[in-house]
Design brief:
The strands form eleven sheets. A ten-stranded antiparallel β-sheet has the order 1-2-9-10-11-12-19-16-15-14, covered by helices on one side. Strands 6, 7, 8, 13, 17 and 18 form a six-stranded antiparallel β-sheet that branches. The two termini are 41 Å apart. Helix 16 packs antiparallel against helix 17. The protein is an alpha+beta fold.
């Protein structure tokens, strides 16, 4: 069953009925101001930090789930009939409905009683505001007298405090209304450097800023009293729940269209200056009024929308594929890179599954996300790397998360996730491979953002490796710490006594848990660091890191191989995890995928055996589950992983993030058919036809899909903000299609289904455009036999760094 369709030409997903199985959202903004918007105009907005600079309020776990957002209401002033043109919150009986989620914008259109309304929401480039362009058309044969109402509910900035500290907040809300603009200035008295505003392009009949005055006592957003009676009361909020609402009267002749623009924005004064409220002459030229006036102009709004579309044209032009598979092309060319940019902007902090309160940007998450967007915004990727490195600790460890507004580590979460440091190495290597910018290694970066602690970024990478070398367990394998990539596999515990509270131990000299996954990650990261060291003349370092990589590889063979697959770990008592010796949790996906991805087992057959075990034990029609058998009860010595019911999340759910590790691993052993099969099983476009099962958006990846042990096998959860986006993009573009940046050029190494005749791929790389035509006359999966560059024979499949211009690359497999 489908609830819409892909419009590939316009790069939109078109939702044709509002009652999708779950809210299907889009993201507005791509720089500093962001918003979440659902197909029924639900969601919220914030500046940079979803916790500390929340503009509008949103209640999670609400009923219905998608309640609260950017709501407009219409009232027929002759009949008194009212409705919501976005369906929610009034759930009006619309005769027509479409929601077009595009790249950085959403348009919601509907018809009710022959009144057609289309509202486009977007954030202009370079601005800290959002625009709602509303166009109302009278399709009746007679004139129509209408009232249009806007509404938003202001959040009191710190979303956590806003949701908890009612005894204070019910007395602090402040607004100001000047020339029809509603200014929300709660905290302005205290901090005096930021405020929000809500403006309208049309002359207004009235306004409301006190929620109860707009809704009415004991009423909700589905039936506001002010809309019902057809007038606002010009209420001014003093404490309680401040909102913004405008009332505009529209008299439309038959076939007439009127446009009304609403602007919701954020303004911040310079930190070293303190100003009076927004209407004061003190603000003078610094006032936000010229910005408001600009975006209440229809021509300026259209130009801003055109500029936004051109921006995405430029980003998506950098990589483009044409293959025999529609779902591959759709994801590679449009939706996968678009999702990668969302994860760059937001990490895991703000979605309909992450409240924006509990976590900021993740260290591990953001470094992995960089793999998917570095080719589109290399300058911003560079800054993100430096920001992440600045949160690293002197030990080489890292805060697991940090707040994007302050760039300070999150002490509530802390560190001791022992895989975290290595992802910085992979991110830096990916950045240099893409850009050739070796100067980043010499950038002076502090530790824990402490002035005076700066060392070159290269030393940060060295300390990341040393962090693991200082924390090796009894088998010489890396200690897992609080957790490795799987945050729920918590193997360090003081006791397995039933009922005793779970605690972690940091005594690295005792019998503590070891991770084979981190061992595989260490093999890869030290290989990458060795290559960087060698290219920059640090030959002793290069030799050392290669030796450490080889030593860890041998330890994996000695202590991490279980006969048919790689072990997952050793627990705090020295027992194997992910072994045939275990009753439950015999085999895990992570070490099979990542060890082979890192090249472990390629020379001795272990890699193929491990991947065959994945196919036998873990693969399902909906993706590869995390482990089998699922844990049937809670095990204290395993931690949170066994707290989930079987088939959900880390307990044998399909954690889509690590599925592409197996796809890449399959290309390393030359199995293009299986790599593509795994790719398509979790490909959202390919799952669109089963939307009633999948439930999440069919245009972006979800974090997880319920596994085969779950009653809801195939149901997705936690869409949008997931490392799945970057890793699937890397898997399909760099390993299956095989167009891969390296330090010395562009590697062409496809591993495709043998039935494919070939494909084309356009790649802009270091200033040159490579137009690559791959032919597969012998119907193999892998193996480049001939390459021509601009008509001339080229030896090998590593293309040189070509001069600017368009270059034709012909590749034949055989």
């Amino acid at each position: 069953m489908q609830f819409g369709y892909f419009d590939d030409e316009r790069r939109e997903y078109v939702i044709t009925r509002p009652d999708t199985p779950l809210p299907w959202i889009n993201y507005l903004g791509c720089e500093e101001y962001f918003g979440i918007i659902s197909q029924t105009a639900g969601g919220y907005s914030f500046f940079r930090d979803a916790r500390l600079r929340r503009l509008t309020r949103y209640r999670y776990n609400n009923a219905p789930l998608d309640l609260g957002g950017r709501y407009l209401y219409l009232r027929d002033d002759r009949s008194g009939q009212t409705w919501s043109p976005s369906w929610m919150p009034a759930r009006s009986a619309l005769s027509e409905f479409t929601c077009r989620h595009g790249l950085g914008y959403t348009s919601i259109a509907s018809t009710f009683d022959n009144i057609h309304v289309e509202t486009t929401y977007f954030v202009p480039l370079g601005e800290t505001l959002e625009i709602w362009r509303c166009r109302v058309t009278n399709q009746r044969p007679k004139p129509a007298d209408l009232s249009l109402f806007s509404s938003i509910e202001f959040c009191l900035w710190d979303a956590w405090d806003d949701a908890t500290n009612f005894q204070r907040n019910f007395s602090t809300g402040e607004v100001e209304i000047k020339d029809g603009v509603i200014y929300h200035k709660t905290e302005y008295r205290e901090r005096r450097n930021h405020f929000a505003y809500f403006a309208c392009s049309a002359p207004i009949e009235g306004f409301d800023t006190q929620r109860e005055a707009f809704l009415g006592a004991y009423r909700g957003w589905d039936a506001p009293l002010a809309v019902e009676r057809g007038s606002l009361s010009n209420s001014v909020a003093h404490g309680w729940q401040p909102i913004g609402a405008h009332h505009v009267r529209l008299s439309l002749a038959p076939s007439e269209t009127r446009e009304v623009i609403f602007v919701l924005g954020y303004h911040e004064n310079p930190k070293d200056q303190k100003f009076d409220p927004p209407d004061s002459q003190t603000l003078n030229k610094r006032t936000v009024k010229p910005v408001i006036a600009r975006y209440l102009d229809s021509h300026q709004v259209q130009q801003a929308l055109d500029d936004l579309r051109a921006y995405w044209d430029g980003l998506l032009r950098i990589q483009h594929a044409r293959t025999p598979n529609l779902h591959v092309d759709r994801m590679v060319n449009i939706w996968n890179p678009y999702q990668c940019m969302a994860t760059f902007n937001i990490s895991r902090s703000a979605s309909l599954y992450e409240s924006g309160i509990g976590r900021g940007l993740g260290f591990r998450d953001s470094n992995q996300d960089l793999l998917g967007f570095v080719h589109m915004v290399p300058e911003r990727a560079r800054q993100r790397i430096l920001d992440l490195a600045a949160t690293q600790l002197p030990s080489g460890g890292a805060y697991h998360q940090y707040q994007p507004l302050t760039k300070r580590g999150n002490n509530d979460i802390g560190s001791n996730f022992n895989d975290d440091p290595h992802w910085l190495i992979l991110a830096v290597a990916a950045y240099i491979k893409e850009t050739g910018d070796w100067s980043i290694l010499d950038e002076a970066v502090p530790y824990d953002n402490l002035p005076g602690s700066e060392t070159p970024l290269y030393e940060h990478l060295q300390r990341a490796v040393q962090y693991t070398l200082d924390r090796l367990g009894p088998h010489g394998l890396p200690l897992i710490g609080r957790a490795d990539w799987n945050d729920c596999l918590n193997l360090n515990c003081f006791s397995d006594t039933p009922g005793q509270s779970f605690q972690t131990t940091t005594n690295k000299d005792g019998k503590v848990a070891e991770s084979i996954f981190i061992a595989g990650l260490f093999v890869l990261s030290t290989q990458e660091l060795a290559a960087l060291a060698e290219r920059t003349g640090r030959l002793e370092d290069a030799a050392r890191y290669r030796a450490e990589s080889a030593r860890m590889r041998e330890l994996i063979y000695q202590y991490g191989w279980d006969g048919e697959w790689f072990l997952r770990a050793y627990d705090d008592f020295g027992n194997k995890v992910g072994s045939q010796e275990c009753q439950e949790g015999k085999i895990f996906i992570e070490p099979q995928g990542f060890c082979v991805l890192a090249g472990v087992g390629l020379e001795n057959g272990y890699a193929q055996r491990a991947l065959d075990s994945v196919a036998r034990w873990l693969a399902t029609p909906h993706g590869i589950v995390l482990q089998q058998p699922a844990y049937s009860r809670y095990y204290l010595h395993l931690g949170e992983i066994s707290s989930y019911p079987p088939g959900y999340k880390e307990n044998a759910g399909i954690f889509c993030h690590n599925n592409p590790w197996v796809m890449i691993a399959e290309t390393r052993v030359g199995n293009g058919a299986r790599a593509m099969e795994y790719y398509l099983r979790i490909n959202p476009s390919n799952r669109e036809a089963i939307s009633e099962v999948h439930r999440c958006e069919p245009y972006v990846y979800a974090q997880m899909i319920a596994g085969k042990d779950a009653p809801t096998h195939g149901e997705a959860k936690n869409s949008w903000l997931t490392g799945t986006a970057a890793w699937n993009y890397v898997a399909i573009t760099q390993w299956i299609l095989g167009v891969r940046p390296e330090l010395d050029g562009l590697r062409i190494d496809p591993c495709i289904p043998p039935e494919w005749e070939g494909f084309t791929f356009r790649r802009i790389f270091r200033g040159a455009e490579y137009v690559i035509e791959v032919r597969n006359p012998r119907h193999v999966s892998k193996g480049v036999t001939a390459v021509r560059v601009d008509g001339k024979v080229w030896q090998g499949n590593l293309l040189p760094i070509l001069p600017p211009g368009v270059h034709t690359i012909e590749v034949e497999l055989g």
